[in-house]
# Entry
Amino acid sequence: MKDVLDKEDFQVVKGGITYPKGIKAAGVKCGIRFNKKDLALIYSEKVADAWGTFTTNKFKAAPLVVIEKNLSLSGGKLQAVLINSGIANACTGEKGLKDAWEITGYVSRGLKIKKEHVAVTSTGKIGEFLPLDKIKAGVKKAISCLDYPGGAEAAEAILTTDTKKKEIAVCFKLGEQEVKIGGMAKGSGMINPNMATMLGFITSDISIKGELLQEALKQVVEKTFNMVSVDGDTSTNDMVLLMANGLAGNKLIDKKDVDYYKFLSTLQHVAEYLAKCIAKDGEGATKMIEVEVQNAVSFG
# Structure
């Protein structure tokens, strides 16, 4: 069985995180960063199966602690993701953790969804507390702005020292059903293998068993995002999050069959594209070096 689909087996189209069915997003200014979008919201109309891979830094930031707890409480389900840029809410102690939980609750009440179905994450300066009033005002604005074309604004709002947006949209067929995957990412400095200052968000409308979604993400991240190094540092905040809401209407993937491997290889293409975008946009970088190793032991 092929590890990677041929290019004719999937199609890259214009779009990003909101390309899959039932996914809305918004990117707004909440005042953390001067005159720049700094708050993004991703929302699925249906509760989605979800999983994440997280930084290997021992000083894991407060938002990641909250996300991991909610994924555990919900059994791997999410419906909304809030991302702020400018302040990382890292190395902020008990107050930082309390703030992350407070924002999580605020988003859940605003969207009228379960608290454990919300993920909040942050990127930016370490050691500063979040301006809760500004973020709450931004959440209200973002909820009112949620829309299907909102992916581009969301991709812009998560950037820090990046010079350009990083987003992709892909579709492929499973039987008679069209399945869509969308993604966006940020990360410019502090990038080292095994998750560093990078945030990656991938959505899909595929119907797949949660355990297989988790396994697919782990395998793909290992071969893509974890291969990127910009300056050798590993950050406190970084993660890749994958959501799948099942709205494509394909037959549920509940085993590692042909449909699973089609999804896996298309997902790998999305992640590889985003990872290369991060490497190309590294702080001060003018060239990207890609190393191809032959006659060595392969992954898997």
Observations:
- The mean pLDDT is 89.
- The two ends are 14 Å apart (CA to CA).
- The chain has one domain: 7-280.
